[in-house]
Amino acid sequence: MDIQPETPWDSTPDISARIVTAIGRIATVLRSGMWEVSTAEGLNPAQAEILQLLQHRTRGVRLSWLAKQLSISAASASDSVAALVSKGLVRKARAEDDGRATALHLTPQGEQVAQRLAHALSFADSAASRLPPAQQVLMLTGLFKLIAELQKTDRFPELRACLSCRHFEPNKYPAQEVPHHCALVNAPLPISFLRIDCAEHEPTDPVRQRRNWEAFA
């Protein structure tokens, strides 16, 4: 005999599980939108993501860094980069910090393609922008807190986020409405201005970075 639940809600998954499910469904929609545009550009998803990762990185990046960002092997990343080089979208040069190492850069043509790829998810951007401003800030705050927890698992790739930047000063004004501060521009830093990817980002040391994320969480 089947055992009936005591209430209609007994079989409802935990909120945490539903959050993960919702993020997964959104990620599927975003991947579909990116796939559509990248296919039109003659790229596979990995190649499209590499172009996006290289965008706004004037100093170039190492192949090993790309592999970590994409959670793929160095060999797979190398194959994707080789294809992009052959398409004239990526170029190789000596790394600024080590003349023996190779850094990857976008070519002018690659920059144009990356800009077009950036518009692939404009439909999602528009949807998010229609949320009330206060709700957008709450959602951004929640996502930063979730990233902070994921950082503890060592499964989340490195970000050029405010919280991992040496210019970020958390809770410098604890009694004020805007507690954080950006030393680069010497101004209070509202949560609504926190960046996931900042071109002016300068990594802080691992100990301080972990402390920043933990303070935010």
TrEMBL record:
Gene3D superfamilies on file: Winged helix-like DNA-binding domain superfamily/Winged helix DNA-binding domain
One Gene Ontology molecular-function label: DNA-binding transcription factor activity
Keywords from the UniProt entry: DNA-binding, Transcription, Transcription regulation
GO biological process: response to stress
Domain HTH marR-type: 16-149
Top-level taxon: Bacteria
Protein name (record): Winged helix DNA-binding protein
